[in-house]
Amino acid sequence: MDRVFRKKSRATKHYLLLLILCSSMAALQRKLHVTSKKVSPNVVNSVISAYKDAFKNCYKNFKYERWNCPVPQAFSHINTPVSLTYTYPHATKETAYVYAIVAASILNRIVRNCRQGVYQDLTCVKHSINGTQSNQDESFSVNISNALKLVKRIIKIFDYKYVRDEKRKAFNWNNSVIGLKAFTERLTTVCKCHGLSGYCSSKTCWKSSLSSLKETSVELMTLYHGAKKYEEQHQQSDPSTQSTNVMKNFISKDVPNSSVLVYLTESPDYCKKNSSIEVQGTLNRECNHHLDDSCKKLCSSCGYRKHSFVKTIENMQCNCKFRWCCTVVCEKCVSRQISSRCSLSTLR
């Protein structure tokens, strides 16, 4: 009887916690909806598109990891930016990666849209006195500078300002800045010559951001694998300086520089399903059949077995030929390939 009562008590407590969390999220979303009206609609749309870009790249990189970057339910159908803090309540290194890639993705969208003239109400590109665009490389530097300011403002408006815990604030900000830094360092300079008969009498240069998000997401994977846990430094007793100290000391003692993702809590067991933290587990997940390490990580190391099967892929393009002029015609083929997934160790 006492055991039954304890179970009911735990269930009631769990229900109340969920109720409080849902109520808090609903209140936050109402605040975010009001806040989003203070930001240009074009910018809001860019942020929403950036979320999609971020999770697309994140999933590709983590496809064969135990945590495969599933898209949170809150991001499935959104029309206003969503707070990452409430979506990812646990400050693990996976959450650190999400903050970094989302920040980089927002910057990527803002920069591209600035160059395309989407934001008529923002100062994206520097112009000379006579109204013509000045040196492209210089103007793009201003573009990047203004874009960085805007992205940091967006992060503060839609997430940072609603966080009460100082350590979590520092966690959010540190990893977002690392994402912005990784993105800007990957931008490449592209130049175009102007002149008769191919003579380069003048040259226009600018920074290209068309493919840097993918490269940034891969670089952030390296930082993810080398993420460091935050070790609390000695803080001053004066409460007024506590926030500043947390921000300044938010880095592990053995980290040689600031280009590192930092986390607060250890990652949970991603092998087994845990609905309370939206962990799906690795059972029935596909692993890379051609890489033994991939299937070992997802299957055998998690207590499952590797089950190989033949996958049929229909309507694949094949036997493509160039037709003058100027189209490519392909046939539709059926392809069969060996794939593997994680199954229960014993068949029933």
TrEMBL record:
Keywords linked to the UniProt accession: Developmental protein, Disulfide bond, Extracellular matrix, Lipoprotein, Secreted, Signal, Wnt signaling pathway
Signal peptide positions on this chain: 1-27
Pfam families noted in UniProt: wnt
GO biological-process terms attached to the record: canonical Wnt signaling pathway; cell fate commitment; neuron differentiation
Localization annotation: Secreted, Extracellular space, Extracellular matrix
InterPro entries, per database record: Wnt, Wnt_C, Wnt_CS
Molecular functions (GO terms): cytokine activity; frizzled binding
GO CC entries: extracellular space
PANTHER family attached to this UniProt entry: WNT RELATED
Record's function text: Ligand for members of the frizzled family of seven transmembrane receptors.
Protein family per UniProt: Belongs to the Wnt family.
The protein's name in its UniProt record: Protein Wnt
Source organism: Hydra vulgaris (Hydra)
